[in-house]
Every structure is written in C-alpha cells, then in structure tokens.
Records
---
Amino acid sequence: MNNANPAVGLRTSVDEDGLNRSRHLTRIAEGAARAAGAPLLAAFRSEMTVDYKRDLHDVVTIHDRNAEALIRDFIFESEPNSAMLGEEGGQVGEGEIQWYVDPIDGTANFARGLAFWCVSIAAVEQGAVVAGVVYDPVADLLFSSDIRRSYLNGKVIASKSVSEESRATLITGYPVSRDFRLDGRVVALSRFGELVETFSTVRRPGSAALSIAHVAAGFVDAAAGFGVNAWDVAAATLILKNAGGRYQPLTLGKVPADSADYLCPGYLAYGAGADYPTLNRVAQAISDGRTARTPTP
C-alpha cells in the first residue's frame, strides 16, 4: 500500500517552483544592479549638476535618471512580463511582476561624494516580495535575497544584535526637516536626544535601503525610518527577514493598517533577537502623533 500523501509532493513541487522562480528574479535584479552600479561608480566624486524635487533637501542628478533607465531596460529585456515603479520615472509597464527600483538610494550622499548610497531593486508577485537586491558599488557589497535565504556577495548571512539598547548601534534618518514640520522641532529634537542618550551609538548615514541591509548583515543592531517609499525598502525588507532579522512597519496614519510592510512609510528594523524599549516607545509616539493628525476620510 502506498501511504504517501500526494498533497505533500504537490506542495513540495510548488515550493521548489516558487524558489526557482524567486532565484531567477533575484539573478535579474543582481544583473541590473551591477549593470547600473558600474557607470554610477565611474560618476561618483566627479563634477555633476544637482537638481531639486520637493525642496532643497530632496536632490536628484542625471545619474539617477540614467541608472533607472538602464535598470528598466535590463529588467524588461530579461523578463517581459514586468511592470516597474521607479523613484524617478514612476510606473511603467503592465506585467504581472511588479518591480520597485531606487536607482540611487542616498542621492544626497552620492552627489557630495559621501560613500553611503546604493542601488535597490525588488520584485513583487501577488503582493509579496520574492526577490531583493541592495548593491553598494563603492564597497562592492551585493546584498540579495530569494524567498529562502539572504546573501552578501554570494555567502549566506545571518543577522545578529546585542541585547541591551545601551550597547547597541542605531541607524536612523530621524529627524529631517519635514519631521520638524510634522512633529514640531522641539518635540523631534527631544526624541532624537533621547535616542542619542540611550543607545551606545546613533548614526545618520542617509540611505534606508543600505541601513536595513547593514542590520541584516549584522553590521549594526537596528535602524529606523519615518518617511520612506516602497522603492526605498522593498528589497531590504526581504533581505532582513530572510537573514533572521525583524521588520516592523509603521503606517504613520498614511496607509491602511493591513498594508504590506514595504508599502508603509515608517519602519523599525531589528537584528536577530533585538527589541529596544526606548526605540519602540519613540517610534510609537511618532506614529500615534501623526495618525491623530491625519484627516478622517
């Protein structure tokens, strides 16, 4: 008598198919990131014209636009059944695979010659991130993840952290000028001061994707952001979670409570095993305050 459960074999087959599909998309993202990274690295620390989008704190260069076009062409040639949302060019295509692309996350750093910026590329199917790549061309660090594991330059990575926040290193962009407008300057600076006094080290390097990837690799213990977009974080969320870290999304009153984590405008990114009460409390206060000020539809 054959006691095998056919559903088990079917589930295994589907899982393997999904993994193979994920790996295929990850390879595309890796190829696109490296292809864009080469001309970006060549342009880094050269003379360049800087333009501004929303305000003087929101910069863009021709290299952002060129890199996004290169990535778009690479993706659509490799996988025609694609659609892409890029920071610079908006939504393009109508395929079933939705890509989220930030050609340079950390443009202000890139434009000034500060070596903390990256290329971020994620693939989403049926609402779930199935492939993610964050590439730092200056250090030649390629963080990537399929649906099973996360890697740094092809080697499996595991997130780690210290247990006490007083010994931990935190990366956060908070506060920036728009946080002053949203939360009030005195309140925002008071919250930042509390983090500085509590954590061993607080750094503000200026790239959400690369910051979260550093948490995934165990380079830092935690990261936090309160004004991100899907193209900033989609890839890094998968890399962090599959490295054993924890990604806690914050809606900040801007998206529905059941939104996918990569669509939420705020986040806490924790290394494996980390849970820092002061950071949780500050983040909750920011979230509650902004939610309370959000107009009711």
Note: Residues 1-14 have pLDDT under 50 and may be disordered.
---
Amino acid sequence: MRHVNIFVAGATGTLGRPAVRALVAAGHRVRGLARDAQRAELIRDLGADAVVGDLFDAEAIRAAVDGSDAVLHLATRIPPLVRMWRRSAWRDNDRVRSQGASVLVGAALAAGVRTYVQESISFLYAAQGDRWIDETAPIDAVWPLASAHDAERETARFATHGGAGVILRFASFYAPYAPSTLDTIRLARRRLFGVVGRGDHYVSAIHVDDAAAAVVAALAVPGGIYNVCDDEPLTMREYVLALTRACGFPAPLRVPTPLARMLLGPVAAVLTRSQRVANGMFKATAGWAPRCRSVREGWSEIARQLGRGR
C-alpha cells in the first residue's frame, strides 16, 4: 500500500486515537479534526497534524479536506450505558453520523478524494438466531440505528461519483481505554451487568486495536460493505461469563427480558438481537485478521492490564 494523505474526523475518539496511531505507524500523512486546542494537542501527540474546526462547518471542512487522498469518518458520540435509554442522549451521535457524513462526503467530492471510509455498526443487521451473518444479510435500521444507515447512504453517494466508498460495519468495541468497557466493568463488579433473558442470543465484538488495524487495511480494499468483528462470536451468556471470570467477579445475575426493556426502552431490543457476524469477506479482501480471536482472549488480556478489574 502506498503512503497517502489522510483526513480523519473523530481522531480523538475511542477508535480514532488508535487508528491515527496505526496510520502514522504505517507511514501515512495524517490530519485529524479537533474540536478545540486541547484535542488538537492529543492528535499531535499521536504523530499527526491537527486541524481545529467544527465538523458541521461545511466550508471549513472543505478547506481542511483539500489535498487529501482519503477521508475517514470515525466520529461518534455514543452515550454512556446508563443513559442509552434516553432518546435525547443520542441526538449528538445522530447528528455526527448523519449530518457529519453529509458534510464530509461533500468535502471529499469537492476535493477529488479517491477513498472515503465510514465507520458503521453491525447492530444494523436484523436478528438471525444462530445463523452466520454476512454482508448480504437484511438490516433493520430502527432507532437508534437509523443515523448509521444515513451515514452509509452518504457513502453510497460518494461511490456513485466514482470513488471507493468503504463501509466498515464494526461489532461491539471493547478495550482497556474504551469508556464503554470501563462502564461495563464497573457494572459487572456490582453485578449490574447481567445475562438478559436466556442469554442464548449471539454477541459479536471486536477489540478496538484490531478495529484500528482494520481501518488501515480498509485503505486498500475496493469500495463496499465489510463486516469487522472477531472470529468467534459468543452467546450473551458466554460473553458475560468470559468477562466476570476474567475479572474475578461474582457470577452474573439473570435479567428478565421485560425488565431489560423497561430499563433500556427500545435500545434493549437492539442490544439483544442475535448477531453471529462473519468477518470472512474483509479478511479475504484486506488480508486482515484480528489479534484477539474472541472476547475470551480479549477480556483476559484487559483484566491483566487493569489489575483484574478491581
């Protein structure tokens, strides 16, 4: 892969930071968008150049993107677990995904960018029981997933003008530095992160470091939709047990499905979809493979890094 000039939105986020670090390590010239001077300094510490600006300022983003070979939309504002049930908590994230993608695609088209990479989510897929889910499986883009589908449509708009529009449908992120992981560990320590219902629905996941490596690999693949997840999705029961055993926590409680729906509202239906996501197409096309093949390995590693979660 030749070295290219890359513009990254979301450069200081959970995926953005390790992705920028990996892109710089691969020899690419990276410019990251920062909302303020403090975040700009974080980007510079990663070895990249920083541009201070507003993702929704179309004119400023056009100027920032000019001269780039690739544009990466890695920006999200996912609310904390304890606030996910509130529709208002998702407004910023929805705007970042929908309007942010529209602004970035417009800037990329104006600049003649060759490649546009969009972070998306495998939660978009409809529940499929124990069947493997590839990129041809049907989606069900209900709230709060609709904005991710909006971003994918913007990527398709980019592709219709001849560029490579790459959509990476990531599974659930986890990493020792990810806020959602730290929230999950805090809840699990207090036995508040339990097995919903029978726990037989599949959960697909990806360590954020592996996701960052996938972002680098995505620069060399043809346009299209790709699943990015580990090799061994587990059932919800297996997933929670892997976490609690790795951290030395008590056995998890079982949470009746009606109670989960009462606590989380419509988000509960999304989080309990059975999604056994397959990563074969991206592995074959990009030559990428996850270092953590399953959360059994990943949670054990994180527990060691965080002192067994205590």
Note: The domain at 5-305 is CATH 3.40.50.720 (Rossmann fold).
---
Amino acid sequence: MSSEMDGGDSWRGVPLSEMYGSQSPWGSPEFSLVSPSFNHAVLYHVPSDGCLADDKPPKPQIGHDKWDSEHVRMPCSSHSLYPVEDSNGESHLKKRWEMIESALSKPIRNSHDLANTILSYNTKFRNTWKFRGLHKLFNEYLEEEESQYFFDVTLPEIAKLALALPKLIQSPIPLLKKHTNRSISLSQQQISCLLANAFFCTFPRRNSTKPTSEYNSYPFFNFNTYRFYEATDSDSNLEKLKCICHYFRRVVTKVPGGVVSFTRRSVPGRALPAWPRSQRPLGCLPLHVDASRTIEDADGLIQVDFANKYLGGGVLGHGCVQEEIRFVICPELMVSMLFTEVLSPNEALMIIGAERYSKYSGYGQSFRWAGPHCDGSPRDSSGRRRRALLAIDALPYSSLSREFSRDAITRELNKAWVGFSFDTDPQSERAQYPGVATGNWGCGAFGGTTQLKSLLQLMACAQARRPMAYFTFGDTKLRDEIVDMYNLLARHNVTVGQLYKYIVKFSQEKDVSQSQLNLYLEQVVKSGTSASPPPANRSAPSKRSDDVMETSITETVPATTTDLESQLENHSPDLFTEDDIDQSLLEVTIESEKKENPHTNTSTNNQSTDKNEVSTPQKRMSLFDTMQAIEGDQNPTASNTLLGNQRRNSLLNDTDASMDEDKSDPATELKKKITKKITDYFSKKSI
C-alpha cells in the first residue's frame, strides 16, 4: 500500500473496501461459529447441522439450575428466598419467584402501580427507591396517549416475557470471570427475557452496593440499583429510558429469531507482545480516517466500545457518552453486565450479533432518542447479526505525566492488542479481516490525549495485522494530523518497536505538558535518530514471540501495570457524564486492579449454595436477618450514602418494573386504535 494517502471530502486514507478485504462490508470471513464446548456455554439447542430456522427463535437448551458462585443466581431458582413478615408480625422466608409471579400478574395502570409492584419483592428499599424518573417520564415527558399505550399494551407483554424465565432459560448461565477464556451464546429471545427481569429488578443479590457483596466485582444489572429510575435532573436519562421502552415494544411485538455470542479473552503476561522488539512495519497497515461518520455506521468492521472496566459504564446511571449510548441503542449488549466480571488489564470482551433498535442524536446531555432503527445487517452461519462489538477499557488519567509513563503506554498497548487480535491466526503474516473501527478511545472524560491514543491504536492494529478505520467525530484537524503522521512513519519505514521507543523516550526527555508529541516524532524520525531502548521495568523471558497468544486462565498481568492502576485509583474523573451530577451518588473511585491477585476471592465463593448453610458474623443471626444481609443492604440509606467509599467507578443500575396483564385485556382494541395513529412512538411533550 502506498504510504501517501488521499481520500474524499470527509475521509482520507484507503477506501473502506480495504478494511473488509472485499468490495462488500459482509465479504470478510465470518468469526468462529457457535459450537458448544467446555468453554462455550450455548443456552439454546443447536441442531446437528448447526443451522437455525430463519422464522422462529431457537429452542432453549435443557438443563438444571445451579445456585453457586460459578453461575448467575436466577430469580426463578428455588434457592432464591426473601424475608417477609406474616399477618402476626412473624418473620419467615418465602420463595421470591412466587412473590414476583404474584406481583407481575396484577394490573399495572400507571407509574405508581409499577413502582409499588417492584417494591413488593424489594421491600427493604421502600424508603429509598422513589422512582422519580419513571414518574416524570410517564406523567410529564411523554404524551398522555403514549403513556397509556405503554401501560395498557406494552407493559403487560413485558411482564409475560419476564415470567417466561423458567421456560426460556433452562440451563445455568456461567459467569465470565476474570482470567478466563470463555464464551456464552444466548438467543435474542432469551436475552429479552433476562432484560425484562432486570427491568423489574428481580435478580437476587444484585441490589447491594456493599464492598463485601457477592457481586461487587460485577456491574449492576437490576435497573434501579444505581437509581436509573430516580434521575430527573437530566433529559438524557429520560431519553435512555425511551430507548429501553422502544426496545421492549419491538421485541414483544415480534420475537427476534437470532442469537448473540459473548466472548471473554484473557492473555497471560508472558504472551503479550514485546513492544520494544516488534519489527512490524507501520506502513503496511491499511488506514482509513473519517471525520463525518460514526463507529456504529462502520458496517462489517469490529466496532470498538470505549468501555468502562465494569461493562456498560453508567448506562444505568447518569452516564450518556459513547459506551452508554451504544448500550441503549443496542440493549442486547446490556445482558453482558449480568455475567461479565470486571475486566483486567490483559482482557477484552467481544460481542457478536447484537441488533440495533434505535436511532439517536446528540451526545452527553444533548442525547435524544431519534426514532426506530431497522438493522439490515445479514446473519452469519450461526444466526448472529454480522455486528461485532469489542469492549476495551482505557485508563483514566489525572495528568499527562501519568498518561505518558512507560507503564501506562504499555498497559494501553496491551489492552488494545488483546482486543484487536481476537480471532486472528497467530501463524499467519497476512492481513486479518475484518478491520477495526475505532476513534478517540480513552479521551474525553478519561483524560486521554488524542495524539497518543491514535498512535497506540495504530501500533496495536499493526501488531495484530488488522486494518484500522479511525473516526474523529467531526474533527477534521485531527483526521489530517493522524494521516500526516502515518505518512511520515510509513515513508521512513518506522516499525512498531521503533515508535514505542520514540514515545517512551519523549516521555523521559521532554516536559510532556509543554511539548507536542507529533512535533517531537517528526523531528526524531526525519533526523533518523535512533531511540535507545529504555530500561526494562520487568524481566522478560529469554525466548518470546511478539505474537504468541496463549489461553492460560490463571496468569495475571505484570505487577507494574497493576501498580500503575493502583496509583490512578484516587484520581479518576467521573467516567460517565460530562456535566454536574448528584455527587451523593457519584463519589466513587476506580477500584485498584492491584487487588486482582488470583488468590483474592472476588466473587464471594464461600457464600452458601444452600439456604441452610449461610455463614453468620460474630454471633448467630436469625435466618431472617441472614437472608437480609445476603440479599442486600440492611440500611439502604446509610449504605448508599457511603457508595463512593464502597464501590467501584462503574455506575450501573438495577431497575425493575413490575407489569401485569389486565385480565380484561384492552390491548387488542387499543392496538387497533393507536398503532396506525402513532407514527412517532415517543414524542416529547412541551413542559
């Protein structure tokens, strides 16, 4: 490929066809097909020929409930118990699913009924969950006709979907834990059922914000744990709720027939590239830089999610930037929050098959739902939409000196490479397709520098041999800077290893707060100055390949990386929104990845798998009190005030809405009257 590049008015570089390796976005090789194995749990039945029916969802895989620390604890499990008081004031434990079935089988006419339904099986939050956001959405923000349609037609169907859980999910869902390489495949129908239960906040042990809770190292999943239904200070939060409501309206109207795969990749430290020694030339990398389009418009490419290490970031909180927006326009992504433990520095998550349901406009506080989106992407041989989302989390930085440190540079390179080299052939020297669609990863609220981040991603793509499409979100100056720098590096045959040394030398020799990285690189590359290798911060094995990709599930990353993340722990910005937020909810800091020693018990594996074996503190507790302690916060008000000191920087929420089917069922008549009439499902009422 020529090192000099030019393009159209909005883009520069090579055409997108060189990102696919064909003239069509769908001409790239398919990803590994769905095949049940010891490390790939498939929750639906796969026919012997591997082909799924096009016109109906696959049948659930038959299995048995597992109530343990290795699997998702399901709301419908017979082990899920809840403390209640009878008419005599005596406390006893009751099967929670029976409470949920009873609550969701009653009519729900308005947002207050919905709130009371959710609280009927989450009684300890009666004084703290006020549902102000829900009330504002349905009573002020939407037209009265739209709100009525939701409660009379859509909501009863969501309730039915939630109550179908025992039928649709018959096999246990494994947790995608740290330091493991594992996959989960679910049908879109199964995902909609799980999300319906999250909407109603039915998942056990997922409401607690305590640092000792079983799921402290996982994102929140019940929708109102981080007050998703409470926020009234921002229209963007109400718009996110509209996206979710629109998704449910779509899936209860027509059951989706496809499947979605979630794959966690963990690469041991010894198998990460030796960056200073890499001989891969940067000039061989096909590069496309676009200032007008967005990542989600890049059909056929691996689309990067600028993730929080707790998947979803603030999607169920106040956040409304890149990751949160992607999760609400493609809500099937949100189910990853149910079973994906916090990502380590050497890990990434790939999601294949999630469908897009909504259009949007704006960003942050200006975000708005802009109508339905019909996803036209074809399905692969396993029944998945040919949409691949790659979740990789950047570090937040409080200063340039930290961002430009050798440890930080190496950490970000490793993180990007682990993601970009997903499903590549380590023995091949040929380009790997499809390419990667990315942008200003780790910039914005995370405090990263676009000059550095674009170069690091360029290096990681070159190392993984994947073409790169970079989207600058309207910034034509940045587009030109990236292309001009690439041309310079390509003309002088600079390798990945050389560029790594140049960047590290820049951080050691220059005052990074006063210097321009691109100017420095231009000078050093043109002068032909060689950068002597900086002193190593860790010992490397004597024999090592730059491209070895092992699959050990027990190794952790080098200590220098976790030390760095520990230093950044107390200097994290709010990762999920650009504007002022209720500080009582946002006093959270990034949990140190230094604590990721594999000997540390992060999932409370010693928790009882039987209701009769619950461990007690210093003195014997009653069974009632014990279940309260396990199920959630004993003092919700106090614990939520201390949320910032107790829990990680990943603002996720658990929210429930209990919905019931009206036995008189006005749905049919209402559908006839309203469906044809309403063209814009959500129109904002002027307030």
Note: The chain is about 30% helix and 10% strand.
---
Amino acid sequence: MLDGEMVLDSTAVLLVWEVPNYPQYYIPIGDISDSVLRATSEIRRSPSRGDAHVFDVLGRKSIIQGGAWHHPDSPLTDIKDHVRFDWQTMDAWFEEDEEVYVHPRDPYTRIDVLDSSRHIRIEINGETVADSSNAKLLFETGLPTRYYLPKTDVRFDLLSATDKSTGCPYKGTARYWTVSAGGILHENVAWGYDTPLPESRGIEGRVAFYNEKVDIFVDGDLLERPTTQFS
C-alpha cells in the first residue's frame, strides 16, 4: 500500500533470502501496474543476483526514487521476471489480510511462549537486577531462549527508559531500558513489548535481558553467554 492505495497485489510472490536472517519479497512483473514503476538509468550491481535496473516508485502523491529494482539477466533464473521493492518504499505490506511489519515473515521461523516456574536471576556486574520464578520463556528459531520476567520482579530502581525502539514481524515494537549496575551504565540491555503481536501475546508487559550481555542464572546454574548478532 502506498498513499492509501493498493499498488500491487500478487499470489505468486517469491521469498528470496538475500541475507541469512530473513527473506525479501520479489513481485512478478505482471502483477505490478505499469503506472507504479518509472525506469531510471541507474544500475546496481550484485555479485550473486547480477545487475539490477532501478525504478522510481510512483504513488498517488509520492515519488520514491530508486525504490524498486529488477534483475533481468540474473544467474538466478527464478527472479528474472520479478521486481524487488525497498520495504520502506511502501506505507504498509499485507500477507493475506494481515499487516506485516519490518520485513517479510520467514516461514522457517517459529515463536513459542511457555510459562515457567524455574528460578531465573539476572545479574549485571555482580549485582542482581531481577529475580523471578514466574517467567515466560520465548523460543525463537535461531536465537537463544529469552526470559521475560514480570516487572514486579525487576529492580526498576536500576532501570531507566531510553528512546530506542525496534520492530519485529513476530513480536511487534520493543521499548528499551538502560541498567545502572556495579557503578556502570549498561545501555539498552533490557527490553519489553507493551502491545506484542498475537503470536507473542504471552510476553506482554514483561522485561527481558540480553543473554549475550548479562549473567543469567537458571535454577542456580549460570548460563553460558551465547554469541549472536546481538553480542
């Protein structure tokens, strides 16, 4: 959707993994109105997908320069007749009748939220900042288990809200906190979702900490800090 209008609609979209973590939509050329794309002279080069011809995207009121591209001679034959739009070009994207946020959902990614009475303790620089036996464990494909704790079990006297926010197509929009512990400020190491998406509703109003950056004890055992893109 762009400028309040549906500008493309397709039941034959390809999911293409340009990077390992999530896919992008590639739209069949035949499913895109001629009035949406305006050719430019720009060429973008990709070692894996070949040269791309760049288009401006035309809405009812907007012109998004360089907002779409097409690889007509790609060595990846499946994408030759498809156009890739910059996600930010559109005001909104929909899968069936549900809006999709941030990037296309990965069909190989699963989210599960489970109740747990395990004793979870969060320690930063030797100082306990959270202690709970009422956690929600969130399992997300490719990431370590995240422990979402009730706010009443978190030492909010050590936390201060920041302006940072991030989006996730499976969980929604997260807000962040900086933690003051051991005489040091640990920026944006805690986060939570005030209004998560339906599949992650169980973590609503709770707080999680980066396993990669804090010490997490589960039933008294210190977990090894994982190495991820958030380390």
Note: Residues 52 and 173 are 32 Å apart (CA to CA).
